[in-house]
Amino acid sequence: MVSRKKAKGKARKAAKVKANAKVDEYAAFNPFSLTQFKKSTCTHGWNPAEYPDNHDCYKLIEDVIKALRRPKTVHDTFHAAKDAAFEKYPDIWADPTQLEWIASAFVSIGVEVLVQGDNNDGRGFLMVSSATFSEWIHQYVACELHKSVPALYSARLNELLHADEGSLAT
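^ that's the sequence the OP posted. Answer follows.
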């Protein structure tokens, strides 16, 4: 008879293997171009023409999306994306206007993936990650730049990171 302690250990190990397998599946989604989202008929409030194509805001978005492709675990996804952009673009992180524009871009990307209904090859993961990163930017602006809230609301970020399509659509 297996002890409860051993059974719990085996269950944790199986859950960890399952989570890592899920990340591997998402990390392999097909490359795409940000221009395909800029050409969308409905950008959901994002104005792609506000900055020129070679602006650092576009580079930041591309860097974050590249980082979303390479997580080691599910929980690394968000931190990898944040770290990819935070040190490289310090001027953007001090400007709430540019950050709001970038957050709108991530909402547009996530919604466009949802509308396309293409959950194959990790695009569903891109949808969830985009929504989560957009929310994190909004919270960062409120907490760090405007000082209107004392801390980031990590429960909301966790809820978005683990949301399904139905939850995100509402």
